[in-house]
Amino acid sequence: MKRILDLILSLVAIALLLPILALIALVIRLSSKSTAIFRQERAGKGGKPFTFYKFRTMKPDVEPFGPSPKSGSDPRLTKVGRFLREYSLDELPQLFNVLKGDMSIVGPRPLYVSQMAEWSERQKKRLRVKPGLTGLAQISGRGTLTREEKLELDVKYVENMSLWLDMKIVLATIIQVFGRKQIYEQKYSQSEYTRGQKEP
Fold it and tell me: How far apart are CA 58 and CA 70, in angstroms?
């Protein structure tokens, strides 16, 4: 049932948002003179790597392995990229990941393959399900949470997952996105930011 809903919701969303997706891609290409879509390897269900999509939000000449933006004032963000991040529009290409079956609408956010070696056995439970566009951690504090807090919320989602919980998470995500709340990380240390590959 979850997969059927993922297919239906991703197809409907892509059909409705296709003009917006095309417009965003065009604006990124014209404003930054670089590719509109950013691709990166992430860990999927069972730790299996897959190609993760998102709209490019950072300047093409920045350090590709530098830390992720901590605030909207990060000079590496383009003007368009800053706007996309504030409304989470940079994540929309992941609808195609959902359609392909790499991701689900709801689930733990996909992290770097290299990070799996750092997780405890309990934290690895997050790999029992497909990663999602949004999840319990994203509606429970988002950028204000530490890495450990996010991983624990991911595990709690896996232990308590249901279609009803998914519906509540989707609704809460919509409210949070329009409110532009807790977008940027606040508690991560510099060493935690620099682990693994980051978006150029």
Answer: 13
